[in-house]
Design brief:
The protein has a 4-stranded parallel β-sheet, with helices on one face. Helix content is 28%, strand content 16%. By secondary structure, it is of the alpha/beta class. The protein is globular. The chain has a single domain, classed as 3-Layer(aba) Sandwich (Rossmann fold). The chain contains 4 helices and 4 strands; from the N terminus they run H-E-H-E-H-E-H-E.
Length: 115
């Protein structure tokens, strides 16, 4: 019997390794979803506002390097960058990023992202 599946051909491959995810959510539920996608191999990019970033960076017990333990748990398996979606330049960068993305994790009020 010859192996035919990609998982057999690449024993260390993770099931979501070809998935691209952008996480622009805050607080817990949607960012945690992105974290779980990253656990299974997805390439997750966390986009944060330039003024302080995600609130979880400051929530809970700080580590020796300054980030909180909550943030270190939620931000694992993610790359991050800052972007101001309220500016035309930031919106344009976001549109370019999203064009190459499979999944968007966001939890804004209805209509906020469209603005």
């Amino acid at each position: 019997m010859s192996p035919t599946s990609a998982a057999t051909a690449q024993p260390n491959a993770l099931p979501l390794q070809d998935l691209r995810v952008i996480d622009i959510a805050t607080v817990i539920a949607a960012p945690f979803c992105a974290t779980l996608l990253g656990e299974f191999g997805a390439d997750v990019l966390k986009l944060e506002h330039p003024d302080g970033g995600d609130a979880l960076r400051r929530f809970g017990t700080p580590s020796q390097r300054g980030d909180t333990l909550t943030w270190l748990s939620e931000a694992r398996n993610k790359r991050s960058m800052t972007i101001d979606l309220r500016t035309p330049e930031g919106a344009e960068v976001f549109k370019q990023l999203i064009a190459k993305t499979d999944v968007l994790c966001e939890n804004f009020r209805t209509g906020t992202l469209e603005k």
